[in-house]
Amino acid sequence: MPKALRPHPDRALPAGEAREVARRIHESTRDLPLLCFHGHVDVALFATDEAFGNPADLLVVPDHYVTRMLISQGVAPDRLGLPRRDGTRTAEPRDIWREFCSHWNLLLGTPSRYWLEHEFAEVLGVEVAPSAETADTLFDQISARLAEPEFRPRALLDRFNIEVISTTDAATDDLAHHAKLAADLPGRVIPTFRPDALVHLDRPGWSDLTRQLGELAGADTSTYAGYLEALRQRRQAFLAAGALATDHGHLSAAATPLDDSAAARIYESALRGEVSAEDASAFAGHMLFQMAAMSAEDGLVMQLHPGVLRDHHPDIYAAYGPDQGHDIPVATEFTRSLRPVLERFGHADGFRMVLFTVDETTYSRELAPIAGVYPTVRLGAPWWFLDSPDGMRRFRELVTETAGFYNTSGFVDDTRAFLSIPARHDLARRIDAGYLANLVVEHRLEEDDAFQVAQDLAYNLARTTYIR
Fold first, then answer.
1. Is 298 exposed, middle or buried (0-12, 13-18, 19+ CB in 10 A)?
2. Which pLDDT tens digit goes with each residue over 43-77?
3. DSSP of 255-290, one letter per residue?
4. pTM confidence score
5. Sequential DSSP letters for 111-158
6. Which terminus, N or C, of the chain has the lesser number of Cβ atoms within 10 Å?
């Protein structure tokens, strides 16, 4: 008989005396609207509002949490449908789905398993667990469900109780989809400004993107001064489209400004195709400082999530392109790296920086002390490899005593997997309920205070962090 799929109502809540308190706290937050201010869902999904298609292309192929686990167990990327650089793909959706279902056990104990069980049971109405035996039945059942009008992306915004969702958009995006959404769903789907491809001078295609930036902004990017003006103009375009934040994914948190002549020299060398790796790295750090300065001017919240070495395996990168799951965290230093920004803007009116990390050794040593003293800094929710039940618990344990609750951003889901958003918010609310319940039963927190903090962590803090 197929194994039933019934997520336990007390999943991720603490055991023992604290469980009943945690149930009450979680109940008080479970129906609050979702604020998704650090999202990566493709804006075209909402602009076109087309049906999702098949479960493999929705739930497997784009989910790096899933594909990297299966690849680690010897499943070839082609069998998982990862598109090659030339756009070709050899596996059919049903075969990809069968591969996933037959390896369902590999996700035991991972947050992916938690999110997917929630998606299957509570979003898609699936009642049996994936397996080699149930794969075809589930493929047909989910495909039929995804074809229903109530499973279109815009309808799911309402069903998921998503109040606002941001997308992550390149600085060179023309924002046409957002213009359509501003008319159809005002204030509901908003852009986030991401300039990474333009500030790393040694990235492939940088020169072409810089020319495109100039054309969109009406600025001359053949000079460093024109390049800065073009970035300012694009930020203004994003603000006009409803943006609240920027997003920066540098390898290092270093934000050391250069003098104008040095920055111009490096920029001009990049235009000639002669920039060195050392100069490109220095320029990226300089531009991180410049982005902070621009945020202090225009009010866009600056989100920084450094510390991931992208495209770790050269053959995978060569065959499948960037961002295909072979991304590995590295040790990250914040205290000295961010000092130039914090010296200048740490107490500045109008500036706000949200810091994320995948190096949790920095939580109590660096990040909590920084957020615990600088009024412009908030700690972002656990991100990427740490947005797990134990990772989120450790975050609360390591930062609260120094930074408190109110120097954190509240939960923002940071995902491109649209159907997983309710599961991610629910898990965060359960973990916070459990953490607060333990404080209550240890007589370190009154229960009425725990209820208020839970509401703030689930909803209010995200609003006050991003909407000011």
1. middle
2. 999 999 999 989 999 999 999 999 999 999 999 99
3. -PPPPHHHHHHHHHHHHTT---HHHHHHHHHHHHHH
4. 0.96
5. HHHHHHHHIIIIIS---B---TTTHHHHHHHHHHHHTSGGGSHHHHHH
6. N
